[in-house]
Design goal:
Distance between the termini: 23 Å
CATH superfamily of the largest domain: Thiolase/Chalcone synthase
Number of helices: 14
CATH architecture of the largest domain: 3-Layer(aba) Sandwich
Strand order of the largest sheet: 5-4-6-7-1-8-14-13-9-10
Shape: globular
Structural class: alpha/beta
Amino acid sequence: MSFQPARIVITGVGLTAPNGNSLAEFRQNLLDGVAGVEPMDVRYMGRLIAGVCHYDALKYQKKKELRVGTRAGSISIYCAREALADSGVNFDAMPKDRVGVYIGCTEHGNVETENEIYAISKFDYDTKYWSHYHNPRTVANNPAGETSLNLGTTGPAYTIGAACAAGNLGLIHAAQMLRLGEVDFAICGGVSESIHTFGIFAGFKSQNALATHEDPKKASRPFDRDRNGIVISEGGALYTLERLDDALARGAKIYGEIAGYCVNSDASDYVLPNPGRQAECVRKALKNAGMAPQDIHIINTHATSTPMGDIQECEAIRAVFGEGCPDTYVNNTKSYIGHCMGAAGALELAGNLPSFNDLVVHPSINVDNLDPKCELPNLVLNQPRKVAKVDTILNNSFGMLGINSTLIVKRFVA
């Protein structure tokens, strides 16, 4: 007898992005071309541009909890609580040991360590002034751990380190754990607090990969001939995932169904992507979903606005989709919000989910002069496009050290 894995569906979405603090607000700004990049002060480096979130951190936490915890933890708690509210689940009645929390993150701990070193520098580096909260703030499982503490969940709660593919990995891992029966309800996705560490700005600047532009809102410009680097951003998007039978039993609304996925590795360079391995990741995700390239209606690209990275991803997309996919449209979300690192994939998926209902593909903005090397069939630029059908979304997220992830979500059909 063949094994039929459980169908996994998305039933709740909670997010904070540089241009919106709910799915409705985020989506509307994507359709209206509203970017969320602004100047901010970065320690030792002066005034730079970044994607900054402006959510209400006190909505689900007290001031003391914010002082003790981290920005990544706060973003996670906000997004988790918003996703739970959106899902309509009776969370109080749910067995908390059957709830899993799986949060992707690019890196964690840098912010807190930098802050402590800066603080004790004012006291001749006397470590007696070092915070005794430093260790729990910097452990890799912090965002998921803070979320578990806030929600009172006693099931598995941990962070998935997957560079900038981490947002996709949060959903993929949750789907796997639900299918294995390890949990009955999952809170998952990705978060980032990256803008609060000067080290990441300095690192990208040293690589000549930090975006500059006289207008901050135009600095993130994937596919544009004049793109010059990444806009570093914070943010988060968490989802509630359930087995289909459980979601139907409680009458939940369903945003979409996890159709397929793949995670692979380049094994070729610390930083530079490998288009061959990216194409392989997409092909394997399609196979996992039982789909052909022409079955995909939206491809949300990872493209970060770096000169080589965008070109190489476009090469991978051409290799898989070619010219024979007239109903496949391509867009990019980083043009609005910059690169939200560990939250990128999760936020970018969220921004496209409403397309199942309104049949509109949000565009990539800030493309004044399309780079010929980034030209793709049905690349949606600067204005939203109404289309005949959106039944599938393919979400690409890639990261340093050669990690690639592709997640496919399809319209739910009973």
